[in-house]
Amino acid sequence: MVSPNSLDANQHLRSQKVKELIDYCEKCSQQGEALDVSQVAFKTILNLANPFSDWKVDELKDVIWRITNEVGKINLVDFFPILNEKIDFQGIRVDHDVKLFDYIIPKGSLVLVNVWAIGRDSTFWEEPLIFKPERFQSLELDVRGKDFELIPFGAGRRICPGLPLALRMVQVMLGSMLNSFNGNLEAGIDPKDLDMDENFGFITPKAHPLRVIPSPL
Ligand code: HEM
């Protein structure tokens, strides 16, 4: 589903699914109904995979959420040692003592990369806590795991396998919606009051989904 060959062959299918997304937004716009942005984006991508087409999106999302949370628990191997030999868990297992600056990382340690902290490192990012997407425009960073300042898909052997699909879909879905509609937050919420709380876990989705009422441009 995400190999470059299948992706090239399925471009027409992706265009069709984005069109369905826009049709759905149009329907919500006419009825003044809010849509859950994360859910419609997830459904659009999910519908590209025919085997799952009978699944209810919420159910599948819930299953994926539970699996990723379980796999992300670093002590799973302590309970099921056999897994250690079969599965490459998140992180890097150090196979010999490593000296890093003044520290010794002992053999056998599990090293986890703190992507959250990298993204908020004020020695690299100016005003790291401010939402400023334009900060990325002038930087020539490769998000495909090459430049560690910005690794939204992870890096190395466990890099997100959905990256080629995500890079093709995210901009097209977002661009198509922004080019067709304005959006107001549900219940008249002011954007500055938007609840940005996260649910902590292997992935950190918004605690309260982003719900928007589309209206024609
Ligand atoms: C904007 C969209 C996406 C982002 C930002 C994203 C990000 C990530 C990140 C950060 C990881 C962890 C990588 C690591 O441990 O180094 C990951 C893993 C994964 N992603 Fe994605 N992802 C996206 C879309 C997708 C899509 C569309 C699919 C499937 C079609 C997918 C399937 C997976 C799977 C199966 C893993 C687990 C890989 C493993 O643990 O070996 N992702 N993703």
Automatic annotation (TrEMBL):
A cellular-component GO term for this protein: membrane
GO-annotated molecular function: heme binding; iron ion binding; monooxygenase activity; oxidoreductase activity, acting on paired donors, with incorporation or reduction of molecular oxygen
Cofactors required: heme
Localization in the cell: Membrane
SUPFAM superfamilies hit by this protein: Cytochrome P450 (SSF48264)
Binding, heme: 160
Domain of life: Eukaryota
Chief place of localization: membrane
Keywords (A to Z) from UniProt: Heme, Iron, Membrane, Metal-binding, Monooxygenase, Oxidoreductase, Transmembrane, Transmembrane helix
Family of this protein: Belongs to the cytochrome P450 family.
Entry protein name: Cytochrome P450
Organism for this UniProt entry: Solanum verrucosum
